[in-house]
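Trying the structure run again after the queue cleared.
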Amino acid sequence: MVALIREMMATLSRDGKSGRAAVAEQEALGRLDDRLTSFAEARIDSRAPMLIRPDECVVWDGNPRDQPGLNPDSCRSLIESIAAEGGNRIPVLVRSNPGASEQPYQLLVGSRRRFAIDWLNHNGRPELRLNALLVELSDEEAFRLADIENRERADICELDRARSYQQAVDRFYGGVQSRMAQALGLSNSQLSRLLALAQLPEEVIQAFATKEDLKVRYSELLTPLLRRYEQRADVIAEARIIATEQQARATGDGPMLPSATVLSRLRQAAARRPRDMGEIAILTGGDRIGRARVAKGAVMLDVSVANDADLDALLATLRETILAARAMA
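Done. Tokens:
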């Protein structure tokens, strides 16, 4: 479909570039070709690729990458590669930014490449420009394309990805998790686990040394503990203590507490309070829709289901709640 990409791939095979670098670039262009081909509605501007200044494009707000997290150290190898090549061989993807004369493009894919070119422009290579493909994609298509690209990046942490999903489910999929899961090729349970990570209290997130330390599997352990009011208060109180310790260690009072230690202390805080036959709140999207309690060897549920509720997401929540209630018994 995207003959332009294939022409670039052929050029790479003829330009004499040796070894793994040429193979890696051809593979990257091949993946880009596959991705654009998968979007039947996508249209590639006939003038592409084009060369633009980094400051001519603004990063689209639906991109999950943490832009402030980009720095010369984290992008060092890319900066050196682009400097040696005289530009980015793998084009970024942009679309028109209507009504913005100074920044006429929105950057959809390629934040690191844009950062690298911009850094080089300010550090001895002002002649470099950003190699870009101009595409026409809807917001939902742009989100899916960026998601596919970013899943392959080790430098995008699970928390950033989870937060982008939390925003996207309402913004692009009408709050229907099953629709989003289908669009992204995820199971409903996979998406539910990622959204649970995004919904962890900020106090718990701050207890970890870095946000990169937070994993989806941690939210699976902590979320059931946070459903009960008393345990939630105990976990958050301990998280605040840990965060204070982490701040002290960051200023030179010793190494940061590893994630396993943080997780263990949070779980121990929840276990200190004697278990009773109390209730577990059933929450979806932060809203309480019912309760669960253990009585006479069974888990009793009292749930109010709205007519437009996402049943797949609701069933995943009920499963987590039942497992948490069984653990209390």
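Residues 200-273 form one domain. Worth checking whether this holds up in the mutant runs.
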